[in-house]
Amino acid sequence: CNTDNMVSITVTLYTLFEKAINEAYPDVTDPPIIIAPSNNSKFGDYQCNSALPLCKLLSSTNLEGKQRILPKDVAEKIVSKVSSSPLIEKLEVAAAGFINICLKHEFAQIVLKNILKNNKICAPPIIRKRKVIVDFSSPNVAKEMHVGHLRSTIIGDSICRLLEFLGHNVLRLNHIGDWGTQFGMLIAHLEDKFPNYSTESPPISDLQSFYKESKIRFDNDEEFKKRAYANVVKLQACEPKIIQAWKLICDVSKQEFQSIYDRLNVNLIERGESYYQKHMENLVKDLETKQFLEEDDGRKIMWGENKNGIPLTVIKRDGGFTYDTSDLAALKQRIMEEGAEWIIYVTDGGQATHFQTIISCAKRAKIVLSCHRVDHVGFGVVLGEDKKKFKTRSGDTVKLSDLLDEGLKRAEQKLKEKERDKVLTEREFNLAKESIAYGCIKYADLCHNRNHEYVFSFDKMLEDKGNTAVYLLYALTRIRSIARMANITRDQIKETVDVTPISLDHPKEWQLAKVILKFPDIVMKIAKDLCLHSLCEFCYEIACTFTEFYDNCYCVEKNQTGEIVKVNMGRILLTEATAMMLEKCLTLLGLNSVEKM
Ligand code: ARG
User: Fold this and answer.
1) Does domain 9-103 have CATH number 1.10.287.3510?
2) Nearest to residue 166, comparing CAs of 125, 131, 112?
3) CATH number given to 131-177+270-382
4) Is the reported ipTM for this assembly greater than 0.85?
5) Is the pLDDT of residue 64 over 60?
6) Which of 39, 128, 190, 532 is such that its CA lies 20 to 30 A from the CA of 318?
């Protein structure tokens, strides 16, 4: 993959102008460097808007002597210092001191040609490949995997896809809640209900009801409660029979989780809280020796770096460990044993304080050093169409498998409304149905700023206009079909790339090319803020800009009888590059595109 030209335009221009401004005004410390795409092509393709604030700065400090300084003069001085670059065609200074930057079409030619020649979209080069651990999905055994876990699964998977694409070494971990006192009662209930569990696998089909049954007994039956507690002790001591019961219960849940991951095409390595048992013991010993733990009303707590906020509870009054203990132990294991340099937790925003405290304590204990990056990727709650917490009509938590089934049903209806069942083969129809159903659920989640709550609405997500999965999936099939209708094969495209220039002279062609060139900027930004809605906005921008191009520029000309009389190969090339770009972005979002729908 030749990534030389997959550079971020904003970063390249920033560097060029930073150098020029420093040369022009060596006495100004930290001058403002402002680069942005122009929103009107009259003002070039990009703009440098540094002259105005720089001028204010110069006037106030009077660094340039007594005479009045004009933004226009500042801009001209900057322009005179900008070194030549393969990116820049020309620079113009507008009256108010804005510097309009026109990009070289040749540069766009090279980028687009590379896409077609490589037959793939290459990632922009990164400075250092890092070992990244993404902790996401992470439902709890014997409890409902709910829409919050679905959000974590969708967002986490997309973050992994993006970082993998950039070339990082990503470990996708499912931090399942598979340890804790609830297992005491579950095991006691299992012993009573299925006494032969050690020889015959118990037919538990509904673990949630099983959980509820055991909880009722736990709350009302003292003798049962005692046995439950005794089981917890035995579990922690790893008594074989109890461990076997624990595994059986976990397996039932894990199978359910796996079926959701299979349907959504999400890969995850399961490494639940139980994995860190030994690590917790060692961590606690270490923290005790280093005197990080403090007594607090029978508990042992640990404060973060500057003793504000809330401390972690490392050991409970009864001597047991907590969610805090396991997360601190896990973080240490991930850094020390896995060699992780970057750790990302994807959970609801409600856990933000928990992770801040974990990170702060880990810094204090010198587990997390300045070379490590640790992010908590939080997200808002999922609401129903009534703007209340997402629930079924009867008020229960929505079962994820039911939700996905509903998605399939709705997607099927949608396709039938459009009479697609009459055109597509059965196989094509089913592929389209799945692509739409799972695609719309994922996309609706990702296209909102993750920090905000979002309203789950099948009606909205299945709309075929606006920034929705359905619109984009359709747009992609439409773009793909243009070359197919002109009877142009992939091989022909590959052959033509070297001899036919990609058509960029029409303003709409150029506008489309410029959108495609923004890709490195978009992905680099997401690698920083881990907010995927920018990628969704980018997809939508591609689709809309393509429509404008297609409405204005013939790719294929037909005569009155519908025969093709002329194929504009330069435009077909642009069309293909657009399709590849859109498809790549959809893949990064976890959407599966189809040939026909
Ligand atoms: N199981 C937890 C929950 O359902 C999420 C775990 C997130 N990961 C972590 N390392 N704490 O809320």
Assistant:
1) no
2) 125
3) 3.40.50.620
4) yes
5) no
6) 190
